[in-house]
Amino acid sequence: MSQQPPVRSTGSPPARPDASMSLLTNVMEHSLDDGYAEATARREAEGGGLPRPLRAKLGLAAGLVLAALVVTVGAAQARISAPVVAKERQELIDRIDKETADADALERSVDKLRDEVGDRQRKALKTQGGDQGELVALLSGATEVVGPGVKLVVDDAKDTEQGGGGPRETSGFNDTGRVRDRDMQRIVNGLWESGAEAVAINGQRLTALSAIRAAGDAILVDNKPLVPPYTVLAVGDGKKLSTAFQDSADGQYLHALQENFGIRTSISTEAKVRLPAAPSLIVRTAEPKTADAGKGNGQGTADTGKGTS
Q: Which of 278, 285, 300, 301 is nearest to 122 (CA)?
């Protein structure tokens, strides 16, 4: 009986020669742990290899460096432009000083010329006024006046407030205790009507063409401001002038202001008062018309011509 050849077993493959070194082989074939590989892949996916806190610190440092650079450049530019600004400022100050000096010089020149014109006008009145030259000079305020008269002082009431809003504003009376321009107008007109030959307020000579106006709370005489108390000097017969003024309607008006609104007034006769000449002089002359020019129109024989100033 024949015998079957033995059947070889087809089990596991033969062992590797380095089977006993499997741990070292695994370390060599897999040098990085899977966790490290995953972390590296995640960082690469996020766009950089640096950690986020480190990137934030680097960005902050870069911003600080940029800000410092901007400040440094600005300071350098300011240091460069500072002398230029200072020079321009000094030039402007010099120009202002020069223009101010020129304006002052022109003002002095105007005052000098005005005085010269006034002196020539006064001389012309004296030399060419004929028999009435002195009277014309007196009425026009061209000459200084000295003689007996009265002294009238008008002042605001005590503790006067800077405001109004009552009857004073419309009816001519005072509910604020302040002397107004219309009060001085009535006082001066009352003195003229009572016989005053010349009048001055706070050293400011008045003429027939003088204007008393107001600018805010200030009273202006011929555009020159006055401050209280207002001292009014009038040349004339002292006793008669004082009595006539106090008995007149304007004197009673002033008395009503004193009694009702506290305006302070005092009047006294003076043996001698001195009034300066008017600072500016305006003279108007009249010329007779011819007989032919006055016919047929019923007009008189005199007309006012152009004046000199």
A: 278
